[in-house]
Amino acid sequence: MNTVVQSDLLSGHEHTRTGLSQAALKQAFIDNLFYLQGRFPEVATPHDFYMAAAYTLRDRLLDRWVKTARSYKHSQARTVCYLSAEFLLGPHLVNNLINLGIMDTARAAGEELGLDLDAIVQEEEEPGLGNGGLGRLAACYLDSLATLEIPAIGYGIRYEFGIFDQTIENGWQVEHTDAWLRNGNPWEIYRPKLRFPVKFGGHTQQYDDDGHLRIRWIPDLVIEGRAYDTPILGYGVNNANLLRLWSAHATQSFNFQSFNTGDYYGAVRAKVEAETISKILYPNDEPEAGKELRLKQQYFFVSCSLQDMLRLQFNTTGSVEKFHEKYSVQLNDTHPAVAVAELMRLLIDDYKMTWDPAWEITRHTFGYTNHTLLPEALETWSVELFGRILPRPLEIVYEINRCFLDEVRMRFLGDESRVARMSIIDETQGRRVRMAHLATVGSFAVNGVAAMHSELVKSTILKDFHDLWPEKFHNVTNGVTPRRFIVAANPRLATLLTERLGSDAWVRDLSLLRSLEAHADDTGLHADWQAVKTAAKEDLSNWLGKHAGVTPDPASLFDVQAKRIHEYKRQHLNVLHIVTLYQRLKANPHLDLPPRTFIFGGKAAPGYFMAKLIIKLINSVAEVINRDPQINGTLRVAFMPDFSVKNGQRLYPAADLSEQISLAGKEASGTGNMKFSMNGALTIGTLDGANVEIREEVGDENFFLFGLTAEQAQRHQAQGYRPWEFRHESEELRSALDLIDSGLFSHGDKELFRPLTNSLIQYDPFMVLADYEHYVSRQSEVGHAWRDREHWNRMSILNVARMGKFSSDRSIRDYCEQIWKVQPAPADV
Ligand code: GPK
């Protein structure tokens, strides 16, 4: 039984419609089953039960949401708007049960009806409206904003198809469309009255407006954005914030026009074209696709969101002059950076302001968060494309740039090369709009997502901007929500923590876990701790048996790497270690290695050949090692298909070792590293991203560090890195690479993995070979440490005890204080 989620804060409202008592929940569930699904319990399907449960919860959220909105309105609270092209929410039902504090009550109500809550929960299809870290971060931040009672709105796109579902066939990734809306989405509410026009294409013209020279944009397409709202409830509070996602539709008038001229097919085509804008999430994690539809998506959701905010501000105060006092708008990476030009356009063209006051508002409205330094991920758009799709915003970008470059010239007299470097328009490779520059120029604050990353932002990609405006730059280290990643994912651990700490207050204040330090040597705790871990490993093992064809021994060390597949994250370094252990065991069958299960999870961008080949390699190595009788289970390899929020929740609790092995300087922060550590996994990792801060918190003696530092890596590269020399110098590395090339893992095909091994030996852009030896020797120490289980448990307990910093509540507090300057506004219900 999960008792940590009980909260008495919300009781006392016992009317049946939205009450939280067992009787009220049960009655509401039966009513919803009947009135919304048209079913009696006797004939209902598991999905009907899920829908009835979801509606039962949604009613309770609506109650709080309406009251929250009223509270915010009365207090005229300053509001955070989080603009993000991705929100990777994960299943709602469990999270809402936890945040409402009714997990146990709901379970009991279900039992009375002969229903198993866990089975109902499993019916939910998660909204996969994001690719990975960036999208999941946005979802964690929504949870923390509501929990901290901060007035906030999340704005994004209601993709009809989210991130693809992944299966593994013959070792390869196969993508399937994610039709998450096919059975309806009980958590959203369509707002038919909230619709905004968004223009595309066409041209601009000047006109005389009562003596004022103004610009009119005559588009050749107008699309309508429609609002779908999802309530986001905080934990143990009454505040429920708003996530507003836009869906694209053809405008009525546009349809009628074509229809009246007899062009029925034309009207339908226009409708289809309009609706493709919110059809599908681009499945690329870091590299930018640079596709026209992607730019349309960005502009579409940004324009709708800003029109929505301006409308609210105008309706409540009669003007938009204090817009920046009412709203703090955060740009989640550069995907919504066109907002800088769009807010200017709306203020000038629609609200008839002049340039200077409009610019004052704009540059006091936005904050920009950078999430990557990888050059291939920095967004730029060709001026030709940008101008063809968004002619009026492009004119505004030019004017912003003209004013900005004058400022640079004034400050750095005669430094024209600096002017060229800083320009929003890159003139060096065709003419391109640099979105990071637009975001930086148009924002009052710029931040990176971990201490080291924020320093690198200042010293590398935005160095010139830091020279100009040092005070604009901040760091806010990422965090993750303990509600989802401990309470929901690992209820056994949550219960143990609550028992040991004597209260569940840690769920709201993760720094309270620190008091576990005092119990780190308590053998009673060690036994419970290990029992919790083993139970999670048994669950995962059963799941993998059904879905991955491997049933690992829960007594083995679970060594897990779960994240997007990318060369910079270096899943292939992990594979080289596995192959090395395999060779050692083959050479010496009596070698005393502790049994290990290597578990991978992650999706590859469908067009990223090398990442897909890495998946094939993992599965090929798995096939050989798992079947080799000589290995006899000492080593096992499993690939968890379809890594998602839901599947991540199965993985984090079961991991003993967390692989955070990116080349230093490449992973902006990482957030999986935090999720694993919070669930008691030890980390083997490089000095990259938030690993640096995790190690600082947990202590060097509780962290397996290896690898080059960012500086060393940088220096090596500058001096001409020669990966083949590392191959020559290490016998084990050479034979591991040779074994892959021998065809052993590919049914004799010596060419299959050649693109990968060749790339490593000849270029190795992420210095896998340079870090191999140190990695493998650290891994041996992991093996030794695992043998002393008391000591391992102690390290695991200390990891959890010292994770307070990595709650997204801390991150959101940092944003509120350093950047947004917003205060909590508790909703009174
Ligand atoms: C960064 F630039 C991007 C991107 O397009 N997508 C994405 O998920 C990630 N990220 C970083 O790679 C992680 O290091 C980081 O923790 C995460 O964003 C959240 O900040």
Give structural notes.
With 829 residues, this protein is of the alpha/beta class. The chain folds into 3 domains: 1-75 and 91-125, no CATH class; 76-90 and 126-478 and 813-820, 3-Layer(aba) Sandwich (Rossmann fold); 482-806, 3-Layer(aba) Sandwich (Rossmann fold). The chain contains 33 helices and 24 strands. The strands form 6 sheets. A 9-stranded mixed sheet has the order 7-10-11-4-1-12-13-17-18, sandwiched between helices. It has a 6-stranded parallel sheet with strand order 21-20-19-22-23-24, sandwiched between helices. α21 (523-547) crosses α32 (789-801). It is globular. The structure holds ligand GPK. Residues 131-134, 137, 285-286, 333, 371-372, 377, 449, 478, 667-671, 689 line the site of ligand GPK.
* Cross-sheet strand order for the largest sheet: 7-10-11-4-1-12-13-17-18
- The gross shape turns out to be globular
Strand percentage lies at 15-25%
N→C terminal distance: 29 Å
What is the CATH class designation of the largest domain? Alpha Beta
Q: What's the CATH topology name of the largest domain? A: Rossmann fold
Helix fraction bin: 40-55%
From the alpha carbons, calculate the radius of gyration and give it in angstroms.
Answer: 27 Å
CATH architecture of the largest domain: 3-Layer(aba) Sandwich
The CATH homologous superfamily of the largest domain is called Glycogen Phosphorylase B
Structural class call reads: alpha/beta
Domain count: 3
Ions, cofactors, ligands: which are bound? ligand GPK
- Tally of DSSP helical segments: 33
- Nearest-integer average pLDDT: 95
Give the uncertain stretches in residue-range form: 1-15
Protein name: Alpha-1,4 glucan phosphorylase
Catalytic activity: [(1->4)-alpha-D-glucosyl](n) + phosphate = [(1->4)-alpha-D-glucosyl](n-1) + alpha-D-glucose 1-phosphate
EC number: 2.4.1.1
InterPro entries: Glycg_phsphrylas (IPR011833), Glyco_trans_35 (IPR000811), Pyridoxal_P_attach_site (IPR035090)
